[in-house]
Design brief:
Blueprint (H helix, E strand, L loop, with lengths): L1 H5 L4 H13 L2 E2 L4 E5 L5 E9 L3 E6 L11 E7 L4 E14 L2 E8 L21 H4 L4 H7 L1 E7 L2 E6 L5 H11 L3 E5 L2 H12 L12 H10 L3 H16 L4 E7 L2 E8 L2 E9 H14 L11 E8 L6 E11 L2 E9 L8 H4 L3 H11 L4 E6 L6 H15 L4 E5 L9 E5 L9 H8 L6 E4 L5 H12 L3 E6 L4 H11 L3 H7 E13 L5 E4 L2 H6 L9 E4 L11 E12 L2 H8 L4 H10 L5 H10 L5 H9 L2
Parallel strand pairs: 9-10, 17-21, 17-22, 18-19, 18-20, 20-21
Antiparallel strand pairs: 1-3, 2-3, 2-5, 3-4, 4-7, 5-6, 6-7, 8-9, 11-12, 11-16, 12-13, 14-15, 15-16, 22-25, 23-24
Helix pairs in contact: 8-9, 13-14, 14-16, 16-18, 20-21
This protein binds zinc ion.
Zinc ion binds next to loops.
């Protein structure tokens, strides 16, 4: 049985390929590795060579902590990727002041198809791999290629005994396969999502109306297919943005996933030119205009599923052609809750208490991409579920649709609808709850505060670095301190960190140096987790993101200090005295809970 799972073009060729890969040692440059002993002491080393099985290392200053058979946790930094393995020292030689050693990885995650029942709903699908198989075959044969690691294609399959089918799939994929048996019903649901119901189509295609329009516009078939593949792949990959970047030899296409850019494809100049006009057509932009920036938006519906996605497109002329950036809106809005966003229980309670109020203001703060809008949407959805209220919003852009709320989008191309003017008219429509996408100027701040003092609940965001900075920012904008004190009830500062994949994270103790860096010497030796890599996280070690929060409730005492014009440092001292966690403290808590890694927390610490 296990042979069937691995065999493709015969089990022999598979294992000989494996052996070849295992023995290949690649000399690497610029990699370094931190070795953690079981006591949590860390040693820095340079990586000389690497293979699937282990590393050759040099410790420049030497170390007396290591011996043959010492077990270690090794964090490897390749310059663009960081991953961790449990390992054991296999050999060790001293040469002058330096030590050379070889470490062998220990089987880390233990996720093998023989022993692990793959949860197909939890895997991250690489659309480029899924598209290697036609939808017809995938759906009919209940088989889904979803990931490629080191030349091996991972395939989810409902019927692993059907060797004939597996062999023919292997030939189509032109790659050795690792076959994971999965529950047939669960796989059906995922296949439907990936390939749509259109089993005869190579991929999920949009409605034929669009195709008819394409004919009129005269766009080449190749460009139409590529544009469709691109939007579809971004959707499956849960990307937030698509970047098409023209350069001397063509263009690079990248996706932003969980805040990081990843390359999707490189295309040649002639295809880029066609793709650019095609994307401009569907975004309702002027294809003839290539020298001025343009904005547009459209809704894209995937055939076969009820899924659709709103996309905002922007173009800007660059040296080698137009750069096109597309933002996919509202992709991740499903079934989010405050708990899922990473709010701890007492933070959830504070927000829930606020949402029961009749009037007052709640502000969210943080840099672009810190998840403020998502938090606001979750709060509004909760309000609509629990209370009968009239919610009106003014946004730029509308990122998620909220059924039951009246959402108004400001027009960035003209001055007709601004935050300021839209907010004024919204207040004439008898709202209970007003959401203002962002407070950017004094006028908007003043109307919002006035609304929060006259029987409305006001939700909004502001660009600052911390919760207390939000208070001082409003006052710097020119709002009277007593008004801020009277209206503002809750301020939330937030950031996003990468969330460790719970299937493959690796534990190790926090070293003394790390504890000192975090200014938490008490944490030396505490158990933390590092990213590794498995089929669930596309071998990245991280999957999704987790929010960090600093939640400030302005009760009587706070309101008094704010009204009297208390300074930022005074407010920070009050926060400390009240034992309110700041962002860094929340990050450390989440590291200790195994949600994120030391490397991620360090980003917060260094921006402090
Ligand atoms: Zn993983």
């Amino acid at each position: 049985m296990s042979e069937a799972r691995f065999s493709l073009a015969g089990s022999n060729s598979q294992s000989s390929q494996d052996n070849k890969r295992d023995n290949e040692r690649t000399v690497v440059a610029g990699w370094d590795a931190t070795l953690f002993t079981e006591a949590g002491i860390s040693v820095h080393s340079n990586v000389e060579n690497s293979s699937i099985n282990g590393l050759g290392l040099v410790i420049p200053g030497g170390s007396d902590l290591l011996d043959e058979n010492t077990q270690l946790t090794v964090s490897i930094n390749t310059g663009h990727r960081q991953f961790t393995r449990k390992a054991v020292v296999r050999w060790l030689v001293e040469r002058g002041s330096e030590i050379r050693l070889g470490v062998q990885y220990l089987n880390h995650a233990g996720l093998l198809p023989e022993t692990h029942q793959l949860d197909v709903a939890a895997i991250r699908i690489d659309p480029a791999i899924a598209m290697k198989l036609s939808a017809g075959i995938a759906v009919r044969r209940k088989i889904l290629p979803f990931l490629q690691i080191n030349g091996l294609t991972h395939v989810a399959c409902a019927d692993i005994k059907n060797v004939t089918v597996l062999n023919s799939v292997g030939r189509m994929l032109k790659s050795p396969m690792c076959i994971w048996p999965v529950d047939a019903k669960a796989l059906d649901r995922v296949l439907k999502e990936v390939y749509g119901n259109a089993a005869s189509q190579p991929i999920a295609l949009p409605g034929s109306k669009q195709a008819a329009r394409d004919k009129q516009s005269g766009a080449g078939n190749q460009a139409i297919d590529l544009a469709e593949d691109l939007l579809y792949a971004a959707f499956i990959r849960q990307a937030s943005d698509i970047h098409v970047d023209a350069h001397a030899k063509g263009a690079g296409i990248r996706f932003r996933v969980d805040g990081e850019l990843e390359t999707f494809a490189e295309i040649k100049t002639d295809i880029y030119v066609e793709l650019a006009s095609r994307l401009k057509v569907i975004s309702a932009l002027d294809i003839a205009e290539k020298r001025a920036p343009q904005d547009g938006r459209f809704t894209y519906k995937f055939a076969g599923s009820n899924q659709q996605v709103d996309i905002r497109a922007a173009t800007i002329p660059t040296k080698y052609g137009e750069r096109i950036t597309m933002r996919l809106l509202g992709v991740q809005s499903d079934s989010l809750t405050l708990a899922k966003l990473g709010f701890v229980e007492h933070h959830q309670h504070m927000i829930e208490q606020f949402l029961k109020r009749i009037q007052g203001m709640m502000l969210l703060t943080g840099p672009t991409g810190s998840g403020k809008t998502t938090t606001l949407y979750v709060a509004m959805t909760k309000l609509l579920r629990e209370r009968s209220v009239n919610i009106m919003t003014v946004e730029d852009p509308i990122e998620y649709e909220i059924p039951g709320a009246a959402q108004c989008e400001i027009d960035s191309n003209s001055d007709k609808v601004t935050f300021n003017s839209a907010l004024r008219s919204i207040l004439r429509h008898d709202p209970d709850v007003v959401m203002v996408g962002e407070i950017r100027d004094k006028q908007t701040a003043e109307i919002a505060i006035k609304a929060a003092l006259t029987g409305h609940m006001v939700l909004s965001t502001l660009h600052t670095n911390s919760a207390v900075a939000t208070i001082t920012r409003l006052i710097d904008m020119g709002v009277a301190p007593y008004l801020v004190a009277a209206a503002l009830r809750v301020v939330i500062a937030q950031r996003l960190l990468k969330r460790l994949c719970s299937y493959c994270r690796i534990s190790r103790p926090l070293s003394r140096l790390e504890a000192m860096t975090l200014e938490r010497v008490d944490l030396e030796g505490a158990l933390i987790y590092e990213p590794s890599g498995c089929v669930y996280c596309a071998n990245k070690g991280y999957k999704g993101r987790i929010g960090l929060y600093e939640v400030l409730e302005l009760r009587t005492e706070w309101a008094r200090v704010v009204a009297e014009g208390g300074s930022e440092s005074e407010l920070i001292a009050m926060m400390k005295a009240a034992g309110i966690n700041n962002l860094l403290e929340d990050a450390v808590d989440k590291m200790l809970a195994g949600d994120t890694s030391y490397a991620e927390v360090l980003q917060i610490a260094s921006s402090w």
